[in-house]
Design goal:
By secondary structure, the chain is α/β, with parallel strands linked by helices. It contains 17 helices and 7 strands. Helix content is 48%, strand content 9%.
Length: 336
């Protein structure tokens, strides 16, 4: 069975160094110094991200992955001036395009976009799709405290709908004040607080909130062909859909449909390497196998937990396995 995974990250030292000149994420900059230092020490920049021809191919062979959809592991920092962000993103996308050209049967790519300059971001998305043959874009976090339901970002999503490519959402550091107020405590260590604020919980709550704001903004009523991808089994959203429908009804929201309808029709979901039998079966039951795509979140999930046989040995039907393993990705991303 062919296996395509779509949340598989890459880094290039030139892009990391160039972005670092502008100070990094503003959410990071507002944290106390000891927290910034601790977070920076956690950042991963090793061969698993940068070495394509040896380390990455070895992982793909062991996990029976036929195609990875590559994306940069971190956004262009939101403190980068817009014109510099445009330049850095173009360079980053050109580097990724060279990798795909070298191995067209093994890789596809998501664009990284200069969200600080929405009109230019829309142009860069079009260039990446039409000229570089990318299959969508991956975006993260916020820009200077603005969520992407702000009207200034509409041209980016309008372009994605026009091009019929999805936008994949990836976690980034939550607002610094929220981090310190919600996640850190004298009752447990700084290391636990950092995990709680990020990959252990906070990242996912933040992305789920962000995507829900997009739905409530009416973006899918304006752009019915717009498609999102949510990782980590939906970033906390699925468990709350019935409650949101119960409380936030169309007569209040002004939306054309129930909130859950948009999450069923316009959004696809990946495990991001969380290989849980219960989660897999729950997501298939709620959304149908047609809206689930495989992803291993390479290289951030420990390799020993990424069983190549997890999906193949699940209790799903063979048809459901085929959909999740490759058919949904091929259809959504227009992969040949």
């Amino acid at each position: 069975m062919k296996i395509i995974t779509i949340e598989e990250h890459y880094a290039d030292k030139r892009i990391v160094d160039e972005s670092a000149k502008y100070g990094g994420s503003s959410n990071m900059a507002e944290l106390p110094e000891k927290m910034r230092d601790a977070y920076n020490s956690m950042r991963f920049t090793g061969d698993n991200l940068t070495d394509v021809d040896t380390v990455r191919f070895d992982f793909m062979r062991k996990q029976n992955v036929d195609i990875q959809v590559l994306s940069y592991t971190a956004p262009v920092p939101d403190t980068v001036p817009p014109q510099e962000a445009v330049r850095i993103c173009k360079e980053a996308n050109d580097i990724l395009a060279d990798i795909v050209r070298k191995h067209p049967d093994r890789f596809a790519a998501f664009a990284t976009l200069p969200m600080a300059a929405p009109a230019e971001a829309a142009k860069e998305l079009e260039r990446c799709v039409k000229d570089l043959h990318f299959v969508g874009a991956l975006i993260t976090g916020q820009w200077q405290g603005k969520f992407y339901d702000d009207p200034m970002f509409f041209p980016i999503f309008e372009k994605a709908a026009e091009l019929d490519v999805p936008i994949s959402w990836h976690p980034e550091f939550p607002n610094a004040k929220i981090q310190t107020h919600y996640y850190f405590s004298d009752n447990y260590s700084l290391a636990v607080g950092m995990q709680f604020a990020t990959a252990g919980f906070g990242w996912h709550l933040d992305v789920g909130l962000h995507i829900t704001r997009m739905v409530l903004s009416g973006i899918f009523d304006k752009l019915p062909n717009l498609k999102f991808i949510a990782g980590h089994w939906g970033e906390t959203i699925p468990a709350m859909l019935d409650r949101m429908d119960q409380i936030m009804r169309p007569q209040t929201t002004g939306l054309k449909k129930k909130i859950s309808d948009y999450f069923h029709e316009n959004i696809w979901y990946t495990p991001s390497g969380i290989l849980s039998k219960d989660q897999l079966e729950y997501m298939v039951k709620v959304f149908g196998a047609e809206h689930i795509i495989w992803a291993l979140d390479y290289p951030y999930i420990p390799f020993e937990t990424c069983s190549a046989d997890f999906l193949l040995n699940s209790d799903l039907t063979e048809g459901e396995k085929e959909l999740i393993a490759h058919i949904n990705a091929e259809k959504l991303l227009h992969l040949n």
